[in-house]
Write a structure and sequence with these properties.
Chain B: Its main location: membrane. Chain B: Membrane-anchoring subunit of succinate dehydrogenase (SDH). Chain B: GO terms for molecular function: electron transfer activity; heme binding; metal ion binding. Chain B: This is Succinate dehydrogenase hydrophobic membrane anchor subunit. Chain B: It is found in: Cell inner membrane. The complex is a heterodimer. By secondary structure, chain A is mainly alpha-helical. Helix content of chain A is about 85%, strand content about 0%. The longest helix of chain A is centred in the middle third of the chain and has 36 residues. Chain A starts with a helix and ends with a helix. Chain B is mainly alpha-helical. Chain B has a single domain, classed as 3 helical TM bundles of succinate and fumarate reductases (Up-down Bundle). Chain B has five helices and no strands. In chain B, helix 2 crosses helix 4 and helix 4 packs antiparallel against helix 5. The chains are: A mainly alpha, B mainly alpha. At the A-B interface, helix 1, helix 2, helix 3 and helix 4 of A face helix 2, helix 3, helix 4 and helix 5 of B.
């Protein structure tokens, strides 16, 4: 049941939030270097450069939340991909034996977390 | 097939209306999404950074631009179907349900068209820049030759 709920949450989360970010990213690329700098300063802010005085505190908190949103979207992608591939197998009528069904319903979200961690490790450290 | 209960009358007939088509489109677009989103994630990993220059140059190429446009169509279509099912499962008041479905239709088509326009503009900006650079170089050549 958890895989099903996570599939819907990650899918609809990406549909509502992720596609907005995708459009902002493409729109910023289309808009030019200044627009792109604005996009980056919000969605992937330099944490060391955040200011913590006056109204800037409000913006800094939003920028930290947006960074968590980006990481959350990457998890949503890998989670939806894994449970989606599981759906393909179930759609052809395979994998309904209790033990294999249970095994993949547990493995799918765990593989998704490992892929998310691997994705960020590759980007940040390779 | 029974003719007593209402369930008995419809059992075995398959889904009514557009159900089967909706189900199939959700799968067809899912297959496309697997291919196209893995291309995008691989590009994010393999390109040196997320800088403006890197990505505007990459996406102005024919194959990446085509892939991105296909991704936009496929992903927005899939997202539309996913959100439609979400609404059909949780919004039961007829008026609210119609309004929510209308909003999802507009947002999905509008978002996809905007995304395709952005890719087209990225490509045309790169071509315009290249043409301007070429013209400038030619002008400098002519001035140097004089």
């Amino acid at each position: 049941m958890l895989v099903s709920i996570l599939h819907r949450i990650s899918g609809d989360g990406m549909a509502i939030v992720g596609l907005g970010v995708l459009l902002w990213w493409l729109g910023a690329l289309a808009g030019g270097p200044d627009a792109y700098a604005t996009f980056q300063s919000w969605m992937w802010a330099d944490l060391a450069a955040l200011e913590w005085s006056g109204a800037e505190i409000f913006y800094s908190i939003i920028k930290i939340i947006l960074k968590i949103v980006v990481i959350g979207l990457s998890w949503a992608f890998f989670n939806h991909l894994c449970s989606g591939l599981r759906h393909f197998v179930l759609d052809v009528g395979a994998g309904y034996e209790l033990d294999s069904n249970k095994m993949w319903s547990i493995a799918s979200p765990i593989i998704a977390i490992l892929l998310t961690a691997g994705f960020w490790a590759t980007i940040l450290y390779l | 097939m029974g003719n007593g209960t209402s369930l008995g009358k419809v059992r075995g007939l398959g889904s009514s209306h557009e159900g089967a088509h909706h189900w199939l489109v959700q799968r067809f677009t899912a297959i496309g999404n697997v291919v196209l989103t893995i291309w995008l994630v691989a590009s994010i990993i393999l390109l040196p950074d997320m800088a403006y220059g890197t990505w505007s140059e990459y996406l102005s190429g024919g194959v990446p631009a085509t892939a991105m446009i296909l991704l936009i169509i496929c992903v927005f279509w899939h997202a539309h179907h996913g959100l439609q099912v979400l609404i059909e499962d949780y919004v039961h008041t007829p008026g609210n349900k119609f309004a929510a479905l209308a909003l999802v239709n507009l947002a999905a088509v509008g978002g996809a068209v905007a995304g395709i326009f952005f890719v087209a503009r990225i490509v045309m900006t790169a071509q315009g820049d290249a043409a301007a650079e070429g013209a400038l170089a030619e002008l400098q050549n002519q001035m140097g030759a004089r």
